[in-house]
Structure formats: structure tokens, C-alpha cells
């Protein structure tokens, strides 16, 4: 760090993104991207896009895409917020809703970005331990003295909460904002978007990155009560009013016309997830019950870091976390069946070498 950096950022720990290797020879099961390309209609729209338009700033309101999302989720455009990936939503929500004296709650085993972004904005937070079986006890969040962020399904466990339980949490916190991060909701969990019509304190964030094969396009959206959405817009317009670029707006709209394609892909991922969980279990792994496009697994007696490194040597990238409670685990993104078969083949080799 330079000697000019502000005192408060000295020694600041930023988020560590998963590896994005240059060589494509890896089977990449480490950052929960989709193994499928964007829909044909999206690719066509890119080819036909009028590059002349890049001369102009994008529509800061993202009117067309917002209208399509509103339609799809049966809300009004005023209930929709567009952002440069859903990480951006987390950033604005962190800034918007946490006063100096407030505390934010999120699970101890969860998306590690929450902690980074809370620290960035000097937000007090408390990590609520998951239960022994890695599930969330919703009662820990029913106190109405803290704001709440919960990913549903949770990452990296993949375990989902039911809509009823989410509603209990929202109901129990009438004076606090409950943000449900639904980055993985399209792979089998229930969305809490309908609750946004009934409660003014729930904010949902979703992304085009995972189920819509668009991680490189950086497009996320939030749904909630108009006033919450307006708060997010205020902060976004004070940070970067053109957060979402023209091409992502165009291609995001094209993606909204291809729901059937993405739904089919999400179904394939769910089938492959079942196949993966069964195969790993038959090989002696413990696999948490996932509703996401990844599984979190460990093999008793085998070190998670070692497993990660051996798989990498053999050309398969998975994600390992050094956090104490989950050191034994690896998180494996669900890819195509062919990719998963290569993973199993390499795992069998590793087990034989033991
Ligand atoms: C991937 C992920 C995100 C971020 O998605 P982007 O829209 O690509 O920024 C948010 N939350 C969780 C839990 C994720 O895993």
C-alpha cells in the first residue's frame, strides 16, 4: 500500500475472486459459472447490435430491461433496480441501510464478500454460526434489532430455506431490512420475490451471472418496495449513474426473451447435480443437500486443500476455502455431464494414489 492511502484502508483485506486461468485447458468448476453459452438470441442480438450507439451513454434508467423484469416477476418497474452485477447491489445496500449504531447479521459460513463490503463501509456486523449440520436456524435472525443478509440458497453450502421461513424472518424484523441474496435461486429454491408486495422491508437480489450464463456481462437486479429501490438508485446515481453498460442492457433484454432456454439449462444442471451428489457419495464423500449449481463436499480423512491442489494438477479447478469450519470441504460447480465424468475420473485416480 502506498503511504498516501487513507488511514481507514490501511491493511484492508479485499475479496479474493476465484481463479480465472488464462489457459482454457482446465475444467473450470470453481466459480459457479454456467457451462452453457448465452442463448442463441443473445448471441444474435450482439452481432446485430448497432455499434454506433456505443458513442452515447447508456439509458441510466435501463427502462426496457426493467420493464421486462417487472413483467416477468409481476411487479412494477419502480420495484426493480439494475446494477453492474449483484455485488454492486450488495455494495449499495450496505451503504444505504446501516447506520453507525446498527449491526448487520449474516451467517458465519456464507458469501465472503459480505464481510469485505461491510468492512469497506465501516458497517458493524455479526456472523451467526450455522448449526452443526450447516443449516441456518432462522430463529437466530428473528430479533428486530439488526439488518440481515441471507443468501438463499446459501453459499457455499448450497442449502436453501423455505419461503415460509424467509417470511418468518421478514415478519420478525419490521424495523430492519432483510436482504435475500438469490444468486442461485433458479436451480431449485423458492424465490421470495412475492413477499416484496406484502412487506416493505425485504429486498431481493438476483443476477444474470449464474443461471443466465452472463457472468462476463455484469448484470444484476434487485426487487423490493419502491422506497427501498429509490434509496439504492440514489446511492448508485451518486457513485456511477451509468453502472450498467449499453451492451449489457441490450443483451440482458435479449436474455429475457429466452427464458425457456435458461430454464432448460437450469434443469440440466439440477439433473447433473443429482448425478454428481450420488457419484461422490458412492466414492465416500459427504455431500451437503444443495439447491444451487454447486455442491459442497468432503471426504473424511482427506484434506480439502490437498484435494483442491491434486485436482488442479490434473486439470480440474474447484474452490477451496481456508475458513476454519470448512477447510475439509471443496465447492464443486456443476458443469456438463462430460465435465463431471472427468472430475470423477480424476478423483478416482487421486483416491488410488492415497
Ligand atoms: C456469485 C454471487 C453473487 C454475485 O454475482 P454477480 O451478479 O456476478 O456480482 C452474489 N451473491 C452470491 C452468494 C454469489 O455466489
Automatic annotation (TrEMBL):
Source organism superkingdom: Bacteria
InterPro entries assigned to the protein according to its UniProt record, in alphabetical order: Aminotrans_II_pyridoxalP_BS, Aminotransferase_I/II_large, HisP_aminotrans, HistidinolP_aminotransfase, PyrdxlP-dep_Trfase, PyrdxlP-dep_Trfase_major, PyrdxlP-dep_Trfase_small
E.C. numbers: 2.6.1.9
Keywords for the protein's UniProt record, in alphabetical order: Amino-acid biosynthesis, Aminotransferase, Histidine biosynthesis, Pyridoxal phosphate, Transferase
Residue(s) carrying N6-(pyridoxal phosphate)lysine: 210
EC primary class: transferase
Family membership noted in the UniProt record: Belongs to the class-II pyridoxal-phosphate-dependent aminotransferase family. Histidinol-phosphate aminotransferase subfamily.
Reactions catalysed, as given in the entry: L-histidinol phosphate + 2-oxoglutarate = 3-(imidazol-4-yl)-2-oxopropyl phosphate + L-glutamate
Full protein name: Histidinol-phosphate aminotransferase
Record's keyword annotation contains Transferase: yes
Alphabetical GO biological process terms: L-histidine biosynthetic process
SUPFAM superfamilies named among the record's database cross-references: PLP-dependent transferases
Origin organism lineage: Bacteria, Bacillati, Bacillota, Clostridia, Peptostreptococcales
NCBIfam families, per database record: hisC (TIGR01141)
Gene: hisC
Domain Aminotransferase class I/classII large: 26-347
Pfam families: Aminotran_1_2
Pathway listed: Amino-acid biosynthesis; L-histidine biosynthesis; L-histidine from 5-phospho-alpha-D-ribose 1-diphosphate: step 7/9
A GO term for molecular function: histidinol-phosphate transaminase activity
Subunit and partners: Homodimer.
Cofactors (names): pyridoxal 5'-phosphate
Amino acid at each position: 500500500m502506498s503511504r498516501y492511502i487513507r488511514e481507514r484502508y490501511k491493511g484492508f483485506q479485499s475479496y479474493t475472486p476465484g481463479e480465472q486461468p488464462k489457459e482454457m485447458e482446465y475444467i473450470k468448476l470453481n466459480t459457479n459459472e454456467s457451462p452453457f453459452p448465452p442463448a442463441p438470441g443473445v448471441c444474435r442480438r450482439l452481432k446485430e447490435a448497432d455499434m454506433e450507439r456505443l458513442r452515447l451513454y447508456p439509458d441510466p434508467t435501463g427502462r426496457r430491461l426493467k420493464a421486462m423484469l417487472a413483467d416477468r416477476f409481476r411487479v412494477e418497474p419502480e420495484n426493480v433496480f439494475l446494477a453492474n452485477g449483484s455485488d454492486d447491489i450488495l455494495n449499495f445496500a450496505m451503504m444505504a441501510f446501516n447506520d453507525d449504531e446498527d449491526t448487520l447479521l449474516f451467517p458465519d459460513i456464507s458469501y465472503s464478500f459480505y464481510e469485505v463490503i461491510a468492512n469497506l463501509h465501516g458497517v458493524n456486523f455479526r456472523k451467526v454460526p450455522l448449526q452443526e449440520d450447516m443449516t441456518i436456524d432462522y430463529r437466530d435472525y428473528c430479533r428486530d434489532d439488526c439488518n440481515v443478509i441471507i443468501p438463499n440458497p446459501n453459499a457455499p453450502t448450497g442449502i436453501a430455506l423455505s419461503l415460509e421461513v424467509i417470511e418468518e424472518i421478514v415478519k420478525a424484523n419490521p424495523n430492519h431490512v432483510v436482504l435475500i441474496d438469490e444468486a442461485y435461486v433458479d436451480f431449485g429454491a423458492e424465490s421470495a420475490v412475492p413477499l416484496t408486495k406484502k412487506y416493505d422491508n425485504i429486498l431481493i437480489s438476483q443476477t444474470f451471472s449464474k443461471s443466465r450464463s452472463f457472468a462476463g456481462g455484469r448484470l444484476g437486479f434487485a426487487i423490493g418496495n419502491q422506497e427501498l429501490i429509490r434509496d439504492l438508485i440514489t446511492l448508485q446515481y451518486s457513485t456511477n449513474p451509468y453502472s450498467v453498460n449499453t451492451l449489457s442492457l441490450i443483451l440482458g433484454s435479449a436474455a429475457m426473451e429466452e427464458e425457456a432456454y435458461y430454464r432448460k439449462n437450469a434443469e440440466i444442471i439440477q439433473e447433473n447435480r443429482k448425478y454428481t451428489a450420488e457419484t461422490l457419495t458412492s466414492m465416500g464423500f459427504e455431500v451437503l443437500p444443495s439447491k444451487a449449481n454447486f455442491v459442497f463436499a468432503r471426504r473424511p480423512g482427506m484434506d480439502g486443500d490437498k484435494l483442491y491442489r491434486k485436482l488442479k494438477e490434473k486439470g480440474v479447478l474447484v474452490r477451496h476455502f481456508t475458513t476454519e469450519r470448512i477447510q475439509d470441504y471443496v465447492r464443486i460447480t456443476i458443469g456438463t455431464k462430460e465435465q463431471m465424468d472427468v472430475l470423477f475420473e480424476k478423483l478416482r485416480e487421486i483416491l488410488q494414489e492415497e
